[in-house]
Amino acid sequence: HFNRYLSKRRRSEISKHLGLTERQV
To answer: Which ranges carry the Homeobox domain (predicted)?
Structure first.
């Protein structure tokens, strides 16, 4: 599973993406 690898660096980007999508929805 590569989720652990990008889980540390993509977590910041995903958090920003989720915040933007949550506000748009």
So the answer is: 2-25
